[in-house]
Amino acid sequence: MKQDEKISRRDLLAGAALTAGGALLPSLPMPQAPQTPDPSSVPGTATSAVSARSTFEAPARAPTGAVSGASFTPLHRLTGTMTPNDLLFERHHSGVPAIDPKKHKLIVHGLVDRPMTFTLDDLKRFPSVSRIYFLECSGNGRAAYKDPKPEMTPQVVDGLTCNGEWTGVPLAVILRETGARSSAKWFLAEGGDSAKVSRSIPIEKAWDDALVVYAFNGEALRPANGYPVRLLLPGFEGNTCIKWMRRIKLIDQPNMSKDETSKYTDPLRDGKARQFSFLMDAKSIITSPTHPTRIDRGWREISGLAWSGRGKIRSVDVSTDGGRTWSPAELPETIASKAHTRFRFMWDWNGRPAALMSRATDETGYVQPTRAVFEATRGKGTDYHYNYIRVWNVDRSGLITFAGNA
Ligand SMILES: Nc1nc2c(c(=O)[nH]1)N[C@H]1C(S)=C(S)[C@@H](COP(=O)(O)O)O[C@H]1N2
Ligand SMILES: [Mo]
Question: Assuming Cys at both sites, which of 129, 175, 249, 390 could form a disulfide with 180, CB separation 3.0 to 4.6 Å?
């Protein structure tokens, strides 16, 4: 600042006093009022009970307002692997029930020696575990499969997947408590919403890694995601993870409930259907850069998520030339089983059109298929488990659009 522009606080006060007195002011050089006070020169706002996001950030689920439908996680606005609790996708068959945890009971009956009911407090008395797992709707990717559009974002293409730390009780602990009989080969899990979503699950899953969970990422489940208790079957399709769970019945054969006959069977090319297709196959998606981003020439990171219902991700390959050549992406040192894994790949864009793809391989050696391979095995009319490779086009201006499928 030049010397003659320097004004003191006293000059300003004197000026203000003159104005108030009605006298004409000489053209006093007034300092330019900044839009906001320099945050490093004034105290900030006070502490609060619950924090809000920066007003410059507005990630949001979409679409909203469906009682029977879904709201998708904004995958392209998130980093790392943990889905924030208020952005965890929702999929309801009949809206979100309002459940008082004091009144909610989980009944365990059927082929058990001691039928029992558990309140939320009862469940919390058992030794708890906290484990990181993904949860993906088996219908994830349907719109992009049936009607791909250039303006689709990762949220619209694949936003029905989430990942985080679930806390609860192993179902095996509850089965031991109730004295599960060896004649029990399946269990039926039923929700307490008006759709009463219910699925039959092979009993081996209960003895393996099934959890009855009451918390996600450090706090109670949100009502939309199953408060106060839900089932979490690591690596299985989302619909088996019964929310607002009120009943587990041990049975000797599948129940054939409406949710496993009218839905969640996958049509095949020969007119038959896959039933009880629980496992979510290995899949990966690029989350950045994607539509609606426009990129500049030069170095940038391509990054995304990979996961497999069968276990750990072993490797992810990235192609920037539409699948002609592939290079291995960086993975974290520790990879969690049946969990989102963040892959990263540095890329120097030369300004020419490009096509970005990612391909996951899991620890069993399963490789994420191309759409052609996927359709050859499942048939064109398949309706779930869309895990084939996705493609993003980069045009000369750097604009990225969803190209559909490789
Ligand atoms: N009781 C009940 N459980 C349910 C559902 C439901 O509508 N009712 N939706 C299922 C489906 S199809 C999916 S994909 C997941 C979605 O879980 P989220 O809403 O917590 O993301 O919950 C499953 N569990
Ligand atoms: Mo789902």
Answer: 175
- Quote the number of domains for the chain: 2
The average pLDDT across 227-233 equals: 98
Q: Are residues 101 and 233 in the same domain?
A: yes
pLDDT in tens, 239-279: 999 999 999 999 999 999 999 988 898 888 888 888 999 99
How distant, in Å, are the alpha carbons of 10, 13, 20 from that of 16?
10, 5, 6
Report the CATH number that the domain containing residue 324 is assigned in CATH: 2.60.40.650
Give distance in angstroms: CA of 139 to centre of ligand 2. 6
User: Are residues 209 and 95 part of one domain?
Assistant: yes
Q: Do residue 126 and residue 224 come from a single domain?
A: yes
Distance CA 79, CA 159 (A): 14
Which ligand is nearest the CA of 198, by number?
1
**In the predicted model, is pLDDT for residue 55 greater than 50?**
yes
DSSP 72: B
Distance CA 218, CA 271 (A): 46
Residues 337/311, Cβ–Cβ less than 8 Å: yes
pTM of the entire predicted model: 0.90
- pLDDT band of 15, cuts 50, 70, 90: very low
Question: What was the pLDDT predicted at 314?
Answer: 98
Query: 348 in a domain, yes or no?
Result: yes
What Rg do the C-alpha atoms of the chain give, in angstroms? 27
The letter for the amino acid at 216 is F
Q: With a 6 A CB cut-off, is 92 part of the ligand 1 pocket?
A: yes
pLDDT on residue 114: 98
Give the nearest ligand 1 atom to 138 CA. Answer: 14
Span from the CA of 219 to the centroid of ligand 1 (angstroms): 19
Q: Which pLDDT does position 31 carry in this prediction?
A: 59
| Full domain range(s) for residue 214 | 69-274
Last-in-domain residue among 227, 256, 274: 274
Which CATH number covers residue 119? Answer: 3.90.420.10
